[in-house]
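As a representative case, we now present a protein record of this kind.
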Amino acid sequence: MDRTAGRTDVRVGLVDGPVIVGHQEFAGSHIESLRAQDVADARADDDAALHATSTAGVLVARRASRAPGICPGVTLVTRSVFSSPAARSSGSATQEELAQALVDLTDAGVRLVNMSLSLASAPRGGHRAMQQALDHASRRGVIVVAAAGNEGALDGNVVTRHRAVIPVVAYSRHGRPGRMSTVGPSIGRRGVGAVADGLVSLGAHGGMRPFGGTSAAAAIVTGAVALLWSELPDTGPGELARAVTGSASRRTSVLPPVMDARRAFESLLTAWR
C-alpha cells in the first residue's frame, strides 16, 4: 500500500449485492456498474447492499477514509447477483445467478474477481452453470478470489475446488483460524488466509460498520492481488496466483496458511530479474 494505490487499467470485478456508490468515502474512486440494479440507493440499509458496500470499501474506499481501501486506484466493476427485491431482501442467490454474474464480469474485461457470497444449495444444473462460468473465466486469464464460507464446516464446493479460484479463510490477529471459517482439502491445498479481526468498513448512511469473516478476508486478498498486478502488470495470471498461494511455506491438509503479500511480491520481482 505504501508503493501504490493501484492502476485504473487493473479492472477488478465484484460479485455481490448492489453497492452504495454514493457513499462519501468512495469520492475519487473508479467504480463502474454493469446494470442499474447493481447500484444501491444512498439510503439503502439492507444486508445485501451493506455487505457489497463493505466489501467494496475494503477495496476502493479512499485512503484518507476512516476505513482506508487497499487499492483505491483500480477500477472496480460491480455486478449484483440479486434478480429481485425479494432475493435481495433474503440475501440469497442461486448458482445460476452467480454464474451469470461471473460471465458478465469476465466479458466486461475484468482481470480479477472478488466473490464473497456463499453458494445457495442448487440442483446439478446450477453446479454445471457455475463450473462452466469458472472455466470461461479461467480461459480468459481471470483470477477469482472466493470466500471459503462461514459455515464452520469441513467442506468444499464447485467454486473452491476450481483451478482458477483462490479460496480464502479468515484468521484472527493472534494467528488462529476463524472459528466459523469453512475448511477442506481443496481450500487447504490452494487457498490462503487473511487476518480479518476487528476490521471496519463502509456502512449505511455514509457511516462505518464492523466487517469480518471470510468475506472480509477475501476482499483483503483481492486487494493485495490487485496491487501486485498494478506493480507488475506483465505478470501472467497463473504466475501471480502461484506467487500469492505460495507466499507461505507451511500447509496442512485442510487449512491454508496466511498470505504474505510482501513475500509474493519479492518472489515475482526475483523471477523478473
Observations:
- The first strand starts at residue 11 and ends at 16.
- The chain has one domain: 11-272.
- The chain has a mean pLDDT of 89.
- The chain has eight helices and nine strands.
